[in-house]
Design brief:
This protein folds into 2 domains: 68 residues, no CATH class; 90 residues, no CATH class. The protein is mainly alpha-helical. The chain has 8 helices and 4 strands.
């Protein structure tokens, strides 16, 4: 077993065989493997796990991120949500509009709008199912946009927290 450049554990042929033979009922369908063909060739048994993900070590971090984002479960309504418009509509003052505008520019420069859409979906889902989460911690509390989405309860405008503390 080894870690790739993304710090994910990659199982090799021996790791997979050992795991399968030790516990044949173990679900390995999400295993990250170094070579899918070897595993398929070595174990010729019925109902063997279907390995669904192979990470190409030649992928850049950006390509890897885009590949992973395409696998997120998110309802179509959230994929189509104009998150910038939604966040701007939550603003009540000119100061809020100014801050949100600055943050949205920074989120857009980093191509993070899909992450904001997913974050909105996640927060809405947690609220719907009465899941409790923290009031906020770390650098995320510097984001007023995340405050408006509901990720945390720290009003960065009130405490004069710079967005640069979040998006370094």
């Amino acid at each position: 077993m080894r870690n790739d450049i993304y710090s994910q554990q990659i199982l090799d042929e021996n790791d997979l065989i050992s795991a399968y033979l030790t516990d044949p009922g173990r679900k390995l369908h999400n295993a990250l493997v170094s070579d899918e063909i070897k595993f398929d060739d070595v174990l010729e048994v019925q109902n063997k796990p279907k390995l669904v993900q192979y990470i190409d070590p030649k992928l850049t971090v950006t390509e890897f991120d885009m590949q992973q984002q395409s696998n997120w479960f998110m309802p179509e309504e959230y994929k189509q949500l104009d998150i910038a418009k939604w966040v701007l509509e939550q603003c009540k003052t000119d100061a809020e509009l100014q801050r949100v505008g600055e943050e949205l520019i920074k989120f857009h420069e980093r191509d993070l709008f899909p992450l904001l859409q997913y974050t909105k979906y996640l927060v809405d889902t947690m609220r719907k199912h009465n899941v409790l989460w923290g009031v906020g911690r770390g650098s995320s509390v510097a984001s007023y946009v995340l405050f408006l989405i509901g990720v945390h309860r720290i009003n960065s405008l009130h405490f004069d927290l710079s967005i640069d503390e979040f998006l370094k």
